[in-house]
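A protein record pairs a chain with a discrete description of its three-dimensional fold. The shape at a given residue is found from the number at the same position. Here is what such a record looks like in full:
>
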Amino acid sequence: MTTLFLGGIGTGELLLIILLILLLFGGKKLPEMMRGMGRGVKEFKDAMEKPISDDEKKEEESSLNEE
């Protein structure tokens, strides 16, 4: 078997990990989790690209405190 990028994890080990994840979370819950992770990564990238001014920070903090 060939090793992948994770320092010696082969194809068999990778398939075993995927199978365990499917067993733990189920086929229905897994797409929801991946969608949530994708949204989180997208928000993180957007936040890294756009600097927030001091006024916007104050507005965000005040809106969070109201909830």
Notes: The two ends are 54 Å apart (CA to CA).
